[in-house]
Amino acid sequence: MMSGFSAAVSNKIKIRLLAITLGMELYTVCASTVGIMTSNSVVFVANFVIALTGALASGLSLYTVRHMTHGADLRNTYGFGRLETISSIVVGATMLLAAIFIGYETLMKIRHPVEQHGGLIAVLLTSVSCALSIWLWIRNLRLSKTEHSPIFGAMWRMARMGALEDLLIILAVGISLLFHGAPWTRFLDIGATFILLLILIKSIHEVFSGSIGDLLDRSLDEYNLIMILRELAVTFDGYEQIHGFRTRRSGSHIFIELFLEFDCQRLVSEVYALIDRLEAGLKISMPNAQLMVVPSRSPVAD
């Protein structure tokens, strides 16, 4: 007996936010290109690489969510949640490639340091993407708390990284322009890029650790398991015994299988009523939960 999905965040909202993110990343690519052409700052090179991988990741995520709007079919009876998880892993892979490239460019700048010059126009352009990145960071983070979504998890971390990256650019290049000619300013560019690299590595770890567990059919976390046990305790008068339960994630959706034993005198309508009570309670903390109850009857007493 299965219940239907109840989406916490509509695909329409996901598509709109991903389209905005894609547009912002393309804008950042253009702004960083201006920075590369008008200055010798390696932080603009890092900005360009991260924005380019971000645009590719946003485009892939947008395609994934659009594909998921079709829902389950006969060949994909569990829907396309795994596609969402795979997309987040691809996002992490592009971020990893960006980290490798940025690390190489940073080492080259350390070996051959040069005085920082130019980049004022690019800093002004970066201020616009910084404001938008902060908004996307907050917005996607709130939505990721509404439902467990690998895509939202990856995208809010990318927005956070973009916001911090833009702030580093504004500070590093701005201070270099303000104190132009001072010998210590050449280290600002390297320092900002190194901090950016650390932020990128942390985000990569978070993306992979959150996605690979879902891909391996890992059970829900302890909090959600406690929520399931709580609902079973609340409805304990509706069944005889618990023979166990299994849980898994598929993208932003949760699948829960309960194995319950019922009294042989209990009506089928009463069993359905119990399932409805369980589902209603579970969807408060897990809006995208899909519940399946496997019933069994206790033996008839002699």
Structure description:
The chain has eight helices and three strands. 67% of the residues lie in helices and 10% in strands. The chain is mainly alpha-helical and 302 residues long. The chain has a three-stranded mixed beta sheet. The N terminus is likely disordered. Helix 1 packs antiparallel against helix 2, helix 3 packs antiparallel against helix 6 and helix 4 packs antiparallel against helix 5.
Radius of gyration, in angstroms, nearest whole number: 25 Å
Q: How many strand segments?
A: 3
User: How is the quaternary structure best described?
Assistant: single chain
The average pLDDT score comes to 76
Order of helices and strands: HHHHHHHEEHE
Number of helices: 8
Question: What's the N-to-C terminus distance?
Answer: 30 Å
Largest sheet: 3 strands, mixed
Shape: elongated
Residue share in helices? 55-70%
Structural class category: mainly alpha
Low-confidence stretches: 1-7
Strand content: 5-15%
Give the strand line-up of the largest sheet.
1-2-3
Short description:
The protein is mostly helical. The protein has helices at 11-38, 42-68, 81-111, 120-146, 150-178, 186-215, 222-234, 268-285, and strands at 241-250, 253-262, 289-297. It has 8 helices and 3 strands.
